[in-house]
Task: inverse folding
């Protein structure tokens, strides 16, 4: 005769603190934003239900369309520059010994700097009178001014983000490279494979997982960038570096339009989810196709 052991459900109590923390840090604030997005808050004691009017108003906002287009260009430019550069840095780093430790520390230094300090550093760095970048470009004959030229401001913000966050991609790729067994490299040497072939058929496929994490992390973070361009350029000149997060802050804090700001926050949230979903599925599909091609 067999007896069935009763199922122990006490393990659910272990995740109860996590559920409570998530509820207070994410779910409840999100519900508050949803509540604001369907009301016209005239005063703290007077509110009028407006339904989806704020969503329709936000979607017709031409400034929002411009900020979204500006944000998409910036985020995809970040990926195009930082992912290959991070891979190249990881490949060039030593694999063992004290030099490997020293390289890891040096690479990670920029990641330790707070975001507002990064903006201040580049604000000084780009000045033509005391900044190394601005002074050098002026001496070379370039009329560089990140405060007066929209293109210069945009490129400076991009360079600042590349300097700040490329080490994260490099560290992730380095971890992926170090996890590859030596047997693969030994087989490649026996077959006489070139460095390009080793990268194409061994290193790149084995780094696919960490690259997916790097792409998603960098895309989400760059799509929510706020502090660095706010400190460096204040969103200017004009609206050249006014990204979605700054546009949202202007709505919520500058103009105190809580209803439209809440509606835009939800739209912003859904845009990030949708684009990350598309990126993730595209990378998964590419990886599956490469694996099937390798098996054939």
Result:
């Amino acid at each position: 005769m067999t007896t069935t052991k009763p199922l122990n459900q006490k393990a659910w109590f272990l995740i109860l603190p996590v559920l409570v923390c998530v509820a207070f840090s994410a779910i409840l604030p999100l519900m508050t934003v949803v509540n604001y997005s369907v009301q016209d808050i005239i005063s703290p004691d007077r509110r009028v239900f407006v339904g989806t009017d704020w969503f329709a108003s936000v979607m017709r906002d031409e400034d929002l369309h411009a900020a979204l287009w500006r944000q998409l260009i910036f985020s995809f430019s970040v990926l195009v520059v930082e992912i290959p550069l991070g891979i190249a840095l990881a490949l060039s780093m030593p694999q063992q010994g004290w030099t490997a430790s020293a390289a890891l520390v040096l690479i990670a230094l920029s990641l330790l700097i707070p975001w507002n300090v990064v903006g201040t550093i580049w604000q000084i760095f780009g000045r033509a009178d005391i900044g190394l970048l601005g002074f050098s470009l002026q001496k070379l004959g370039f009329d560089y001014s990140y405060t007066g030229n929209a293109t210069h401001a945009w490129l400076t913000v991009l360079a600042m983000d590349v300097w700040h966050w490329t080490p994260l991609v490099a560290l992730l790729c380095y971890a992926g490279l170090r996890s590859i067994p030596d047997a693969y490299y030994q087989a490649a040497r026996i077959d006489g494979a070139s460095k390009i072939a080793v990268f194409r058929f061994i290193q790149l496929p084995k780094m696919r997982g960490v690259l997916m994490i790097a792409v998603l992390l960098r895309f989400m973070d760059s799509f929510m960038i706020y502090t660095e361009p706010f400190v460096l350029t204040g969103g200017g000149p004009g609206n050249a570096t006014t990204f979605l997060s700054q546009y949202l802050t202007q709505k919520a804090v500058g103009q105190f339009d809580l209803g439209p700001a809440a509606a835009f926050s939800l739209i912003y949230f859904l845009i990030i989810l949708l684009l990350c979903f598309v990126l993730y599925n595209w990378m998964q599909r590419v990886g599956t196709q490469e694996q099937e091609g390798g098996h054939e």
The chain has one domain: 76-295.
